[in-house]
Amino acid sequence: MSMVSFLPWCRIDKAYDVGQLQILPFKRHQPIEGLDGAAQCRVNTILATYKTIQAKPVDRAAIARYAGKSVIDDLNEEERETIRELVAIACFCGLARREYFNELGPYCNSDCFSLYIQKFDRADFTAITTRRREGETLSTWPIDHIAITVPVHCHGIPEVRLDETLLKALISHRGATSNNSWAKWQNAITCFNQANTDSENVRYQVEWVLLCSAFEHILGAKPDAKDVAAKFAAVVVPTEPLLARDATRRSQRWQDTKQFLRYEWMREFYRIRGDFAHGKLNTAQPMVWNPLEHLALASIAFPLVVKCLLKKAGRYEFTDDDNVQIDAFEKFANTVNFLRPPSERRNSLDSHWSRICSDCRSKLCLQRVRNAVGEKEMLPREDKASPAEGDASAGEGA
Question: In terms of DSSP bridges, do strands 21-27 and 60-66 run parallel, antiparallel, or are they unpaired?
């Protein structure tokens, strides 16, 4: 029996190598590498059962090809599990590529990376496996009786792009790290992905607990708010740190005047996790940041933690955007009502985040100019001959 692995809601922009996996763009009625006409027709027929919200077959998607095999070769359970793991890494790199507060910039959610591995024999019937609490159900359906519709929160995403530099660094780290160490990274990345579905059916309390678990695993921290916060503050370090005592947004309950604002944010975020993890839907604990602000900050911060740890391991170099976001994070967290548009908004894309990032980018460029000027001033200069030396030389020549 043949098998095809695909992501019907992932309008991937180009082909990506993800370890042993290739994620290939699918465009209806365009050739798929390695498939003859009959096989191409079968794949087109299967993907035609996946519909847009207008009930039309998806015109773009992504197909997963494992270890150089044909995209319709049979796969054993171990190979299918590896595909799931590698798709999760690709998903994270898509989430890390997002531009917040910019409706024209790249954006996706983890449900865009929903993976279907579908068995089929002929193009007129297909087998669908669905989960049950006690196991799973395998059913065979006539292909023309099936219609699976895109989730609404994926429909409006026109294209998915991955952070390719980060992707290569993660695959390199995965290959060079022990199984036990990589398991922590895998757990953290999976938790982060699951917290970023954008689905209305996932409560923010669940996302909160998942994000806290992601930070705890990736930082190798104890399940303690102070330890997670200390490790976070030590990993993500801006060029101009902001002490909590100097912050606009602060709590009178903060006792340690030497801690940075990023430490206090993480300590509050992880502390409140305890209520949600124990089944409470509401918390009575005081908060400096509201729930939506906390979740936005966590979603910005976690990819920065991953990049900082990869850089420390020698597998990644910061881009300008990375440096800008690291410097902007604390300033953004210190901004009152940062999810709302700023007063005297300049245009539809104007936001507190874009303003702070623009300011940090300007400072980064200015520092580079200063460094370049300083280096030039430190270069050795050729000594000009003194007039006396010049006269002496002229006399000798005469």
Answer: antiparallel
- Quick check: 118 and 126 in contact, CB under 8 A? yes
**Same-domain check for residues 188 and 113:** no
Taking the C-alpha atoms of residue 223 and residue 53, their distance in angstroms, rounded to an integer, is: 43
Residue-level pLDDT at 392: 44
In the DSSP assignment, the letter for residue 30 is S
Instruction: Please give the Cα distance from 215 to 229 (Å, whole number).
Output: 9
Domain, as residue range, for 337: 164-342+350-376
Q: Could you tell me which residues come within 8 angstroms of residue 186 by beta carbon, excluding any fewer than 6 positions away?
A: 85, 88
Provide block-wise average pLDDT over 10 residues at a time, the chain (398 residues). 93 97 94 87 91 95 94 94 98 98 95 92 73 86 87 96 98 95 97 98 97 98 97 98 96 89 98 95 95 98 98 97 98 97 90 97 93 72 49 42
**197 and 326: one domain?**
yes
Query: Cα separation of 152 and 114, whole Å?
Result: 14
Bridge partners of 4? 118
- The count of domains in the chain is 2
H/E segment holding residue 38: helix 37-47
Half-sphere exposure of residue 366: CA atoms within 13 angstroms, side-chain side: 6
Q: What DSSP string describes 313-376?
A: TTS----HHHHHHHHHHHHHHTSTTTTSPPSS--STT--HHHHHHHHHHHHHHHHHHHHHHHHH
